[in-house]
Amino acid sequence: MAIRVAAGIITREDQVFIALRSDDKHQGGCWEFPGGKVEEGEDPAEALARELMEECGITTDKSELFKFIRHDYIDKSVELYFYLVSEFSGEPHGKEGQKVTWVNRSDLSTYTFPEANVPIVEALLKV
Ligand SMILES: Nc1nc2c([nH]c(=O)n2[C@@H]2O[C@H](COP(=O)(O)OP(=O)(O)OP(=O)(O)O)[C@@H](O)[C@H]2O)c(=O)[nH]1
Ligand SMILES: [Mg+2]
Q1: How far is the CA of 35 from the centre of ligand 2 (A)?
Q2: CA 37 to ligand 1 center in whole angstroms
Q3: Signal peptide: which range, if any (predicted)?
Q4: Where do the DSSP E strands lie in 13-109?
Q5: What is the set of domains in the chain, with CATH numbers?
Q6: Strand 77-89 to strand 3-12: parallel, antiparallel, or no bridges (unpaired)?
Q7: Do 55 and 34 contact (CB within 8 A), yes or no?
Q8: Beta bridge partners of 80
Q9: Which of 19, 70, 76, 98 is deepest in the core (most CB within 10 A)?
Q10: What's the CA gap between 46 and 3, in Å, rounded?
Q11: Among 114, 52, 36, CA closest to 85
Q12: Distance (Å, whole) CA 61 – CA 97
């Protein structure tokens, strides 16, 4: 069974906010768009808002679904709902101690993301 995940592409002007997955996590050492598993009784947009508050300390004010991607890793299958987050309150930070950074869209390809994110990064380079 695939796990459902909501992730936020937090944008401000030409920059995107990304976080480093710690080594002990699935796809550890890769950069990610902050987010996490959709819990029972939640829809992906609710999960997104909850996760962005938990992991980055922001309130999501405006988000729209950007892409849905299903990906089979060797060890698990994921269904990822990637949202563009264009308006938010608060200053995103690594609330759980994770390393974070703002990166220019055009520099996204220099960061290593999980395999499932490849089409997302490609699409963001074109926007
Ligand atoms: N958050 C996030 N997860 C991603 C991305 N790309 C991707 O393949 N994933 C995968 O989706 C799953 C998301 O899980 P997560 O570890 O963020 O979930 P979570 O925040 O609920 O964490 P927890 O299990 O530590 O409570 C992981 O298997 C992760 O490897 C991404 O861009 N962002
Ligand atoms: Mg997470």
Answers
A1: 4
A2: 7
A3: none
A4: 15-20, 31-32, 35-37, 59-72, 77-89, 100-104
A5: 3-126 (3.90.79.10)
A6: parallel
A7: yes
A8: 5, 69
A9: 19
A10: 16
A11: 52
A12: 24
Tokens for 82, please give them: 């990637």
Q: What is the band of 126 on the pLDDT scale with cuts at 50, 70, 90?
A: confident
Q: How far apart are CA 44 and CA 122, in angstroms?
A: 23
pTM: 0.96
In the block, which residue shows the tokens 């996490």? 36
**Atom 19, ligand 1: residue with shortest CA distance:** 36
- The radius of gyration of the chain from alpha carbons, rounded to an integer in Å, stands at 13
Residue closest by Cα to atom 14 of ligand 1: 36
Mean pLDDT score across all residues of the chain: 97
Alpha helices in the chain (DSSP H): 44-56, 118-126
Which residue's entry shows tokens 């299903």? Answer: 70
